[in-house]
Fold these 2 entries.
Entry 1:
Amino acid sequence: MLKIAVLAGKGGVKKSSLSRTLAARLVARGMNTVGLDTDVDQASFARWMQRRVNNGIEPTFPVTADVKANWIRTKLDDMNYDAAVIDGAAYASRDTLAIAEVVDLTIIPTGYSVDDIESAIRVGKALLEGGIKRRNILIAFWSVLESTSQHRDRLAFIQAQGFNVTAGYVPLKPTYSTAMDFGQALTEVSAAGLRTTARVFIDEIIQRAIEVKTDG
């Protein structure tokens, strides 16, 4: 089973939209996929799936809400799926490491703000200190306000910290937000350019996860 977790140390970095889009794209690529929502208070992954079902959007896939880190550690491998995407709760520092220890790739989404970048780096360093290998961590520029200069500067800064980071980004766009409200993933929007941007970005993340798993 390919196991990907989307974890963050703060809210506002669009963690859930990345989780949903990853899972939907894995399904579109032919993988039997399950979504696991660990955010007890929000359960936004599960609620998004309900909107998807209500609006007749296909394909659908199972999303389990209120999943505990200990369950993921002990039961995840017993599930009969090709892939699992875990949407981690923000601020859950203790659970963050527990989940990262059992997945192939941990993605830490970030914007360009200093707060976002510093939070992503803190989470990454905490994972390293907890024994997670650098190759199993990926910082991702997700739902960012487009700025060529900021992207260049933030990319160089994160690389200088020794972390793997996406070369590209997915911008913050009303079209994407509307799609999520309706139950679509960012890779399913009607605007061809934005759909391609999201698909290329997500496919690169999936490919990285596959390579990490294959390399052991």
Entry 2:
Amino acid sequence: MSNDSTAPGYLTSVGSSPEYDEKLERQISRWIRGVTGLGAKLVFPRWTDPQPSIPKNGITWCAFGVTTMPRGGTPANVQISEAQSEQWTWEQVTVICCFYGPGGAATASGFREGIYVDQNASALQRDAGMYLIDAGTIYNLPELINNQWVRRYDLTVTLSRKNIRTFNVKSIVDGNVTISTGE
């Protein structure tokens, strides 16, 4: 089966693709840890299988989850060579960050302010190819965990990234056609 435009049928992208799932979660975890100073065992994805053990009561930690990935507009298709084209899309990545524990509010607030520091924004762009769009309101939402109320502060952050996928779409170099001007 051919995976280029010289034969009819479906095309799949070739080469590297945007990072999703665990790879995207690792990028976001590194970003949260870098800005908050929380340790690697204190920042983890909310919805995983198997679910990691949560820290003991009295420890400040963060659980996060990617909640939406809307794509605005239509993809741009750009012919990059005679043999390949790229499809460019701009995708938003919405992340809910839930900060728990006795320092949850301070950590959430520090994170929200810290992500607007130019050096932190540049590191996110360099390391993950993402840009900060918005950080919302911090909500105080205590949670009952193991029959104990635990402080919890939620913050939604919206990021943006440019995704590039490559397809083997050949350009027309020579067509078997005649163009007539009508003269």
